[in-house]
Amino acid sequence: MALHIHEACILLLVIPGLVTSAAISNEDYPADEGDQISSNDNLIFDDYRGKGCVDDSGFVYKLGERFFPGHSNCPCVCALDGPVCDQPECPKIHPKCTKVEHNGCCPECKEVKNFCEYHGKNYKILEEFKPSPCEWCRCEPSNEVHCVVADCAVPECVNPVYEPEQCCPVCKNGPNCFAGTTIIPAGIEVKVDECNICHCHNGDWWKPAQCSKRECQGKQTV
Predict the structure, then answer these.
(1) pTM for the full predicted model
(2) CA within 20 to 30 Å of 7's CA: 22, 53, 147, 222, which one?
(3) What CATH class does 52-96 carry?
(4) What residues does the VWFC domain cover (predicted)?
(5) How far apart, in whole angstroms, are the C-alpha atoms of residue 106 and residue 85?
(6) Cβ atoms 65, 77 nearer than 8 A
(7) Strands 196-199 vs 190-191: parallel, antiparallel or unpaired
């Protein structure tokens, strides 16, 4: 009976050892960094220096061959020192361009606003409008607004007034001028007091009236 117990103990000691060794594999313990480097050294890469050029997609071009590195890049020529690419002066994009494409060497405007903006309002191409009584404007095909300001003539009076919806001032009482502090109409002589008769200069309304003294008609004091 003692012999059977001893043999059972030996079997129990051997079986765990077998299970432990089978559960351990190389996948649980990655290779050392030195082993990885040595394995990478076995890889072979083609060297095209001095022989050709390689783009980002891996295509190889011969020396002197013209190619495009990408859809939005300028064309290049494969040289001994690497690609030599064109660098043209691209035209400026219109400031009101709403759609720009980058499918070529230079960006290209594909859509521009078909209206003009002026003081917060939109106007159609070639539309004419008056933002004020003195301004005449038009929306140009370039999406820019060009305006002309009316050139008002000098009024022929010293008291012009501005009427609603009119650009230039008007002389409601006709031409006139100053005789001292009194406004007198032009074209006639006006007796401004007991001793002076005045009249406006012809065409020179801004000049003071020309006056002459006459015999005073004042009452004599007793």
Answers:
(1) 0.38
(2) 22
(3) mainly beta
(4) 114-172
(5) 13
(6) yes
(7) antiparallel
